[in-house]
Design brief:
By secondary structure, this protein is of the alpha/beta class. The chain is 34% helix and 29% strand. The chain folds into two domains: 170 residues, Rossmann fold; 183 residues, Dihydrodipicolinate Reductase, domain 2 (2-Layer Sandwich).
Length: 373
Amino acid sequence: MKKIIILGAGLVGKAIALDLNNNHQVTSADFNPEPLKDLKSKGVNVLNTDLKSKNNLIKAVKDFDLVIGAVPGHMGFETIKNVIEAGKNMVDISFMPEDPSTLNNSALKKGLTIVTDCGVAPGMSNIILGFHNNRMKVDRFECLVGGLPVVREWPWEYKAVFSPIDVIEEYTRPARYVENGSLITREALSDAELIHFDEVGTLESWNSDGLRSLIQTMKVPNMIEKTLRYPGTIQYLKVLRESGFFSYDETEVNGVKIRPIDLTAKLLFPEWKLKPGEEDYTIMRITIEGEHNNKPKTFIYNLLDKYEKTSSTISMARTTGYTCNAVANLILNNNFSEKGVIYPEKAGEDTDNFRAILKYLWERGVNYQITEK
């Protein structure tokens, strides 16, 4: 039995902790005592500490075999940096704006394995492409992905399982994709289109910056990721963005300087917060086209995962958290030991590891339906 510490006890961090606690000795750490109370009642060890403090964090992780990062994106980079200084292996799900590869040399010097962006997308999408890219000549990769509430409630028709600022990043961060071997950068929310899914109906998609490390690690001439939401979402998001509500530049109101993004996040948090028992679903469609043995080949991965009623676990926490845990178990079992700052696509290259990840997810009801053409 290994000792694991999870940094962050939000909705995803909670799901990670409860799942791993079935087979390992788990401690969940967070600054907020409220979510820790619930985890403690379910048999998880807890630690109430300020994870923004370097000294606190290094002290917190020193006795553990593996660290899992589930903090908000704006804390992700410094958290990984401090975990590396503490000399611990790590799997991280934070969607940070910084480039974690700049920490690669530090991780290598200490002989550490640090897997970043290890959620659903980025994360499982990378793992799937990593597997196929190692076995065929891939010409095109497309990932359509979204997490949505089952019940559409005006005006937002959306609920967030991550911090609102992290979600808003998707609406402001320029979107990068690869077309005919060239890197293209467009504004977020661009190239909107309506896409039909038999299971949930028609959804709206737009360019988002979810390719992340794939742009550097994959020599695939056409790659794109698009976010999925209910139709009509783009219009009001563009209005808010263009009106300055997502700006990080301070503005003065009655003599007080504030960032509009902070006010917007404060107002949206109660509106976007999932109510107890409120159901969500995760939908993802990955298409990989190319050649295998000089013949055209297409693989399509479809995922429709739903809120798990028995354990009251939201779908986005399941699809994100269980992918993270599957990779964590590979490291704990010495089946993945590549050193440095590693991206999920690397974990998918080995056939046994890829199958182990799919099996781990399947055992927890996260089923990727694979079509081969």
